[in-house]
Design goal:
- The protein has 260 residues and is an alpha+beta fold.
- The chain is 23% helix and 34% strand.
- The longest helix is centred in the first third of the chain and has 14 residues.
- The chain is elongated, with a radius of gyration of 22 Å.
């Protein structure tokens, strides 16, 4: 029985197989459009569609005027999700990829995360209002973060806090004031709000164009999104955030303690 797959998928799958088995190594140039057209008796549109599939999957990246090249897809490491960190709202620690013996892979080392942030007052969009349990349009403080390792962005995050909780206090701006950079729990504790739990929902979706430009991937490539919401003792949502990382380069690690 013949191959029933569309030709563009057959081309993309064949190229992926060659990359996975090492026939096309990282940095190698993908066969040109004319080469692929001859090899598969395909049209320009079919070949271009196959290459777009390859780019969207993170296997290749175009370089203007030079062609399309195989990208490095080896995991950079893990982002450890933990309650232990107090100096970042998103409690993540970056660890390099390790070999089976637990040693850092060549060229990979423990790297401290630094971040840049900007805050602005805005109206809560309907999905965010639902997560916070407030009416759409109510005032919230939105803070956008860009986390960097060796000056390269590895994680993006956007946080929303209801201004009914923090307005007029010393903690209204997460990155300024006497309680800056203490994380959600530490900051809100300073104004008498005790955060007792957080809930995370983990999913995936295509990267938006701004996310792709920031994270160094192709628009439409898969990213992992962590939707995290903090609650106080009255089960009131006091902060919610979206955390975005490249799905092909980072894994999320959760430490789950058990109590007797």
């Amino acid at each position: 029985m013949g191959d029933s797959r569309p030709v563009y998928l057959r081309i993309a799958d064949d190229l992926r197989r060659r990359i996975d088995d090492g026939s096309l190594v990282v940095g190698a140039r993908i066969p040109s459009r004319s080469e692929l057209k001859r090899a598969y008796a395909a049209s320009d549109q079919t070949v271009d569609r196959a290459v777009r599939v390859l780019k969207a999957a993170g296997y290749a990246q175009g370089q203007f005027g030079r062609g399309v090249f195989v990208t490095d897809r080896a995991p950079l490491g893990t982002l450890l999700r933990t309650t232990g960190a107090v100096d970042t709202p998103f409690a993540a620690e970056l660890h390099p990829a390790r070999d089976p013996a637990g040693r850092p892979c060549p060229g990979r080392r423990d790297t401290a995360l630094t971040w840049e942030a900007s805050s602005s007052e805005t109206s809560a969009p309907a999905p965010i209002a639902e997560r916070l349990g407030i009416a759409a349009g109510e005032p919230v403080l939105c803070t956008e973060y860009e986390y960097l390792a060796d000056r390269h962005p590895v994680q993006l995050a956007t946080s929303w806090e209801p201004l009914t909780v923090t307005a007029g206090t010393d903690v209204v701006l997460p990155e300024r004031g006497p309680y800056a950079r203490r994380g959600v729990r530490g900051r809100l504790a300073a104004i008498g709000v005790r955060v007792v739990r957080a809930r995370e929902l983990v999913g995936s979706r295509p990267a938006t164009t701004p996310e792709a430009e920031a994270l160094g991937c192709a628009a439409g490539q898969c990213v992992t999104v962590v939707e995290r919401t903090h609650f106080d003792g009255d089960d009131r949502a006091v902060e919610t955030s979206d955390i975005v990382v490249r799905a092909d380069r980072w894994r999320l690690e959760y430490v789950i303690p058990f109590t007797s």
